[in-house]
Write a structure and sequence with these properties.
It is built from 18 helices and 29 strands. The strands form five sheets. The protein has an eight-stranded mixed beta sheet, with helices on both faces. It has an eight-stranded mixed beta sheet with strand order 20-19-18-12-11-21-29-28, with helices on one face. It folds into three domains: 50-277, 3-Layer(aba) Sandwich (Rossmann fold); 285-378 and 431-503 and 614-682, 3-Layer(bba) Sandwich (FAD/NAD(P)-binding domain); 379-430 and 505-610, D-Amino Acid Oxidase, Chain A, domain 2, CATH 3.30.9.10. It has 682 residues and is an alpha/beta fold. The structure holds flavin-adenine dinucleotide and S-adenosylmethionine.
Length: 682
């Protein structure tokens, strides 16, 4: 019986066809025991046996990589990496996740240990198919229930590239690389220490799925493996045995699962010792000082804290005192044609940060949580200053970007049909509440916040020393010692670490006003992008601590000005006017709706730290061993910082980051583009 088949996300004739992902075509067929099982329409092979697929998963991949013992042997801040070829229905991942959960609940010493799973998939299941299959497993194996729900809730859009899913309560990171496994593995970056500790080789049978057993796969395994890596697979085909042996693995045939005669286990030739006694890489710092409590510092602190590191987060003024303290930030990407999306920092950051903020909200539902971090709004990009046409946007999965019917777009925005043509609608764009984000980050038990000016930052052989002055008692100098430091001080970062590129300082003023009832009825109902951006929002009680807004009142924000080499933060009426003019020049019909007099508008001014290539600085500071940076976020800190913090902490921890070497190089604080000083106008 064929119950669920799926169409490709885009047509094969589209110019971006090469970058599109074709979802799996699922066909349901009886297995040799008469149970209906999902079969791949592409390969004609089963994903698993319904009767004992889970037991087989546990036997072949988990037991024969010795994972119960190896995971149990982990210590604080150690991270174990499993890589899987062929994510399919996620059953192997769920089985491993459940083991990890059980081990962590039994063994308190695993509290700060981490599990990192990297998996690859060329034909990902559509969410509806995955839901149908996993609900079936939920009935058969209720112990997987919580994990199935979490996986389905976080399942990414079917877009090529790496999708990082964090399950913070379980210290689990799952990187799903969509696209051909050979290409994905070629993109994985081998860290300076560590690597893949265990491989699950779970392609379809070599006879029908040659690509997953090709030399390039085994060569990638050799490149990416840690010295004590192991591998397991159900297949004993000659091509598998040869591939492993020729790429640095010793192999052994063992009894297969159930009625199957044999299967294969393998281990790196380099490791004479038993894999169970070998150490996975460790994040080598117990205590890290993070300088600057804007969104960069908050994300660096949170990411470290979530991996068991004690963090002292320091700001000379207050959390969110700098550019990050607007009442709301818009989370919406600068779109690029689909062919570039997987390597496009805006796109991959947007996808990650949207998921990250929502997960943070979900995890905080029961805690002492003031306001939601994310207000889901969707956004319409009127393509006034865009790199993409409406036609190109249609190549994206519709849950990422789409084009609405003109009447619907007009109704959604309350604008006329001619104004909303052309447009791109981003259904998952959102407004972020910085105060709510800071509140939840600062409540992490591993983070201690302190208001102090860091005057100097020095490295010693075994740590870093920060000379700080308390903000209030200006005279009192003090030293903070830590194992490492991360400089997140935006445009002031190079004052603490002179090796860092001196970013351009760009003043920006965001304006807002309280609309009267008539204006409220006629203003756009969702955020709009038009070169600048505007958005309605309702102020909450906690907003008032940062900005002059009235709790419970509808507000309308618009921005932002862009003044180079200006670090003055006084509010200027002419920049209110500039923000108004910018909106009116893009959407003339709003001239009648917006107040003419801008004198009583409110505003906040921040200084953006901008690099010449618009990418932030993420990584080690040159000529230091313990000083790192996360800064230079320009106009996109709320999109960039969550993913860039993951990348940074992966570098510190010897873990494989969720981006390719090319993207990583484009974030390097020492990249060639930064060697040329800024000219006056660029
Ligand atoms: C008007 C405007 C609108 C914007 N809108 C958006 C938007 O909608 N979406 C979006 O994603 N981005 C937006 N941005 C960009 C975003 O705000 C920035 O990219 C982001 O805030 C940068 O964060 P940061 O933490 O790197 O820097 P900051 O937030 O500036 O934080 C740096 C911190 O370092 C502290 N510091 C500096 N030196 C020291 C020292 N020596 N000791 C201790 N502390 C120190 C400062 O006090 C400050 O708090 C906007 C920016 C502006 C100006
Ligand atoms: C046996 S299934 C994997 C089952 C899966 N591990 C699970 O737990 O459900 C093999 C998977 O490999 C995927 N695949 C086949 N060729 C691929 C390729 N070239 N690159 C990446 N994935 C591929 C298939 O789409 C399929 O999902």
């Amino acid at each position: 019986m064929t119950s669920t088949t799926s169409a490709t996300v885009t047509t094969a004739t589209h110019p971006d066809a090469a970058a599109t992902i074709t979802p799996a075509r699922i066909v349901w067929q009886p297995d040799d025991q008469g149970s209906l099982v999902p079969v791949s329409g592409e390969f004609g092979d089963v994903y698993f046996s319904q009767v004992d697929g889970l037991a087989e998963s546990r036997y072949v991949f988990i037991e024969h990589n010795h994972l119960p013992a190896r995971l149990q042997a982990l210590g604080a801040r150690q991270s174990f990496t499993v890589a899987e070829i062929g994510f399919g229905t996620g059953l192997n991942v769920l089985a491993l996740w459940q083991l990890w959960r059980a081990l962590r609940s039994e063994h308190t010493h695993l509290k700060d240990a981490q599990l990192h799973i990297i998996t690859t998939e060329k034909y990902p299941l559509m969410l509806s198919d995955l839901t149908q299959i996993l609900r079936m497993w939920q009935t058969r194996a209720p112990e997987l229930g919580a994990m199935i729900n979490a996986l389905l809730a976080a399942y990414p859009p079917l877009l090529a590239g790496c999708h990082r899913l964090n399950f913070a309560a379980d210290n689990l990171t799952l990187d799903i690389w969509l696209g051909d496994a050979q290409e994905s593995l070629a993109r994985l970056v081998k860290p300076n220490f560590g690597g893949v500790d265990a491989w699950f080789l779970d392609g379809f049978a070599p006879s029908c799925n040659e690509d997953l057993w090709a030399t390039a796969i085994f060569a990638a395994m050799q490149r990416l493996s840690s010295p004590t890596a192991t591998a397991a697979t159900f297949s004993c085909a000659g091509v598998v045995k040869r591939g492993l042996k020729e790429h640095g693995f010793s192999i052994k045939k063992v009894k297969g699962f159930g009625r199957k005669r044999e299967m294969l286990t393998a281990w790196r030739d380099a490791s004479e010792t038993d894999a169970t006694t070998q150490a996975a890489p460790i994040l080598p710092y117990r205590h890290v000082a993070v300088i600057g409590a804007g969104v960069s510092g908050l994300m660096a602190a949170y990411t470290l804290a979530a991996r068991g590191v004690q963090v002292t987060l320091i700001d000379k003024q207050a959390p969110l005192a700098g550019a990050s303290g607007n009442p709301r930030a818009l989370l919406a990407p600068k779109m690029t044609p689909l062919a570039h999306a997987a390597e496009h920092l805006h796109t991959v950051s947007y996808l990650y940060s949207g998921r990250f903020y929502r997960q943070l909200d979900a995890g905080l539902q029961t805690a002492n949580h003031v306001d939601p971090i994310v207000t889901p709004t969707g956004t319409m990009d009127l393509l006034t200053k865009a790199n993409i046409t409406a036609d190109q946007a249609c190549a994206y999965p519709s849950d990422v970007a789409t084009v609405l019917e003109t009447e619907e777009a007009a109704a959604q925005t309350r604008l006329s049909a001619s104004t909303v043509q052309p447009h791109v609608y981003l259904p998952n764009a959102a407004l972020i509440n910085p105060q709510a984000l800071a509140h939840s980050v600062l409540s992490h038990p591993n983070i201690t916040y302190r208001t102090a000016m860091v005057e100097t930052l020095d490295e010693t052989t075994d740590g870093v020393h920060l000379q700080v002055k308390d903000a209030e008692s200006n005279a009192k100098a003090d030293t903070i010692k830590a194992d490492a430091a991360i400089v997140c001080s935006a445009y002031e970062s190079h004052q603490l670490a002179p090796q860092l590129f001196a970013c351009r300082q760009i003043r920006g003023q965001l304006s807002w006003f309280t609309p009267n009832a008539k204006q409220q009825d006629n203003l756009p109902t969702l955020p709009l992008k038009y070169g600048g951006y505007c958005a309605p929002f309702v102020a909450t009680a906690s907003d008032a601590a940062l900005n002059p807004v009235r709790s419970g009142q509808q507000q309308f924000l618009l921005g932002a000005s862009f003044v180079r080499n200006d670090t003055d933060t006084t509010i200027r009426v002419d920049e209110h006017q500039h923000n108004r003019d910018k909106l009116i020049s893009a959407i003339p019909e709003l001239d009648e709706v917006l107040p003419n007099d801008v004198h009583d508008w409110q505003a906040r001014v921040g200084i953006r730290a901008q690099t010449p290539d618009y990418h932030p600085l993420v990584g080690p500071v040159a000529d230091t061993a313990r000083i790192w940076t996360l800064c230079g976020m320009g106009s996109k800190g709320y999109a960039f910082a969550p993913l860039c913090a993951q990348i940074l902490v992966d570098m510190m921890a010897g873990r494989i980051p969720p981006v390719s070497q090319r993207l990583l190089d484009s974030l390097s604080p020492t990249r060639p583009r930064l060697q040329r000083p800024l000219t006056a106008d660029k």
